[in-house]
Amino acid sequence: MVAWVAWPSSPPRRAAGPVEVPGLVAEEVRIGSGRGVLAGTLVLPRADGPVPAVVVIAGSGPADRSGRMRGFPAYAVIADHLARSGIAVLLLDRRGVGGSAGDWRYESIEDRADDALVALQWLRGRPEVDPARTGLLGHSQGGWVVQLAASRSRDVAFVVLMAGPGERVREQIITDERNEWLRTGHSAEEAEAHVRSLDRWMALIDALAPPCRALRLHTLCHVIEYDPAPALRRIHVPVLALFAERDTMVPPQPNRRLIEEGLREAGNHALTVREFPGANHQFWPAKTGARAEYGELVPGYVPGFLETLGEWIAAVPPAGSAGSSEAAAAP
Predict the structure, then answer these.
(1) pTM of the predicted protein model
(2) Are 255 and 178 found together in one domain?
(3) Cβ within 8 Å of residue 112, ≥6 positions away
(4) CA–CA separation, 256 and 241 (whole Å)
(5) Looking at the structure, do residues 125 and 176 belong to the same domain, yes or no?
(6) How many CB atoms lie within 10 A of CB 141?
(7) In this predicted structure, what is the pLDDT of residue 267?
(8) Nearest C-alpha neighbor of 30 from the set 71, 81, 58, 65
(9) Are residues 206 and 59 part of one domain?
(10) pLDDT band for position 218 (50/70/90)?
(11) What is the DSSP string of 73-112?
């Protein structure tokens, strides 16, 4: 999720990969215009009436609408499964990628939440979609984004957190780096020395965040101060939180606890939590979960992941109904 690197001043614009959905309706869309345009693909089931729908919000980095990772079109696979389950899906290119205007490197979490709500409003206006059953799915950094968006708008009917963090940005980076070092053979002492050095570097970026943003010095300048706790305390819709046992970036703990605590403070008991054994941050079967082993893995979702997504979204009651605030199981 957070492999923070120095990007060139003018990043190459990636072409958006095709979204293959044989047997379904896939429509190329443009939301807004000019410098504000967002481009993507709307995948629709073949259905007689309005259907539930979800906007997929990508993690960090220059993600295209398909969410391609090591050749695996992660978000397109989700869209294909959900559409075959009767759920419409809007996939988007991140800003500066494919057909979307702008530059993802200079977006804050707040900027991305604004974009998510613009996309949601557009989707709610489609005649094929039931606006009372339209929500947001955020993967990784996208989890922070959809939490914030849901806290700002009553039009979000549900939230899906796919390895979505409950930690602050700075703490999440430390968690990720410590776990990565430990799972790639370093000693505990080496890992702690590494994160102490990293923490000092991030403290400097945090202190210099405003001029750092103004001078466009580093991607991290735009997000390092972000804390999801206030947003979690303002979410009142059903939430599905998906975690992976071997995730080094967003491990089940402390993220599950922090999300539970924030929603509890909101009086929101409609939380469902699922943890997938043997899975990494991408929800692929993994040995250690470390990013260093990604090249050795066969990309693809662990058993039950796609089914959990489809079944939960299909079962979410319309926003504003009596059942929408009922407690959900959280084993």
Answers:
(1) 0.89
(2) no
(3) 57, 142, 145
(4) 8
(5) no
(6) 26
(7) 97
(8) 65
(9) no
(10) confident
(11) EHHHHHHHHHHHTT-EEEEEPPTTSTT--S-GGG--HHHH
